[in-house]
Amino acid sequence: MSAVISVNNLSKIYESGFQALKNVNLDINAGEIFALLGPNGAGKTTLISIICGIVNPSDGAVLADGHDIVRDYRKARSKIGLVPQEIATDAFESVWGSVSFSRGLFGKPRNDAYIEKVLRDLSLWDKKDSKIMMLSGGMKRRLMIAKALSHEPKILFLDEPTAGVDVELRRDMWEMVRKLREQGVTIILTTHYIEEAEEMADRVGIINHGEIVLVDEKTRLMQQLGRKQLTVHLAAPMAAIPAPLSNLPLTLADDGMALVYDYDANQERTGIEELLRTLNQHNIEFKDLHSRQSSLEDIFVDLVKNGVNREAMAS
């Protein structure tokens, strides 16, 4: 699959001496939804700002649809739409006027039919003549996306697209993003709602302390780094794990009313049979069993907290 964005050995050191990015290498494929995750201060905004031509890199190169973002700024920038986290619009402008003006900023000829399509796709058509000050927060967020799409970009950056919106609107926006991808737009999103990445992304990249920790397909990432837990709900509380069970990866939970067993679901022998057999042999009664697989959020927290063995991920 061809890369629509190619980042090579990108670094950024600010005048204060702070290094926000350290030799970042990243390829984003055409037509995918790519989720960029990282804690606050990890370098997400700096990376996006450099790719979008807002911040100058200290070293390295970035290509957007084959155009160098420094040497061929205008062509590179014309390929990119950016929806920033902060909503900034002219409160007294109309929805139609604001989106049309954004298109004109990129030198695109007037195209009322295209603007109408964008507004209809974003459920803004009935608000086309409304002043922006009259829109709800969710509608203003949709307007920011319309403005970013006004010049028909091939690449769309969404920085925290659903921050501060209700769950129903969030679901609507997820569906809208999928439709954009079906139309051939490459979507790169940053989000604090990790279920958003789990729900939508084809691939996930994790950045921490200015470095890309890993990039992988979401499903492969969850299979390879995901863990499963079996919770055994006991009939009577335990003060400590009995000696016959001490060699198993068990922890006590719920004030001694549950045993939690960690296992690798990809292994041929999970050890669950041995656990249940040992419980039966020693007359340890239980009321229920419950299993769960670690989510993308669990994996993200673990990677950021403990790091990752990159060689192991590559194997």
Secondary-structure map with pairings?
Elements lengths: L2 E11 L5 E11 L3 E5 L6 H8 L7 E6 L2 E2 L4 H6 L1 E4 L11 H11 L6 H10 L15 H13 L5 E5 L7 H16 L3 E5 L3 H7 L2 E6 L2 E7 H8 L2 E7 L15 E4 L4 E6 L8 H10 L4 E8 L2 H11 L3 H5 L1
Parallel strand pairs: 3-8, 3-9, 6-7, 7-8
Antiparallel strand pairs: 1-2, 1-4, 4-5, 9-10, 11-13, 11-14, 12-13
Helix pairs in contact: 3-5
Pfam families: ABC_tran
Protein name: ABC transporter ATP-binding protein
GO molecular function, one term: ATP binding
Fold and architecture overview:
By secondary structure, the chain is α/β, with parallel strands linked by helices. The protein folds into three domains: 1-79 and 153-218, P-loop containing nucleotide triphosphate hydrolases (Rossmann fold, 3-Layer(aba) Sandwich), CATH 3.40.50; 88-152, no CATH class; 227-293, Alpha-Beta Plaits (2-Layer Sandwich). It contains eleven helices and 14 strands. The strands form three sheets. Strands 6-7-8-3-9-10 form a six-stranded mixed beta sheet, with helices on both faces. The protein has a four-stranded antiparallel beta sheet with strand order 2-1-4-5. α3 (95-105) packs parallel to α5 (137-149). The longest helix is centred in the middle third of the chain and has 16 residues, at 167-182. The two termini are 21 Å apart.
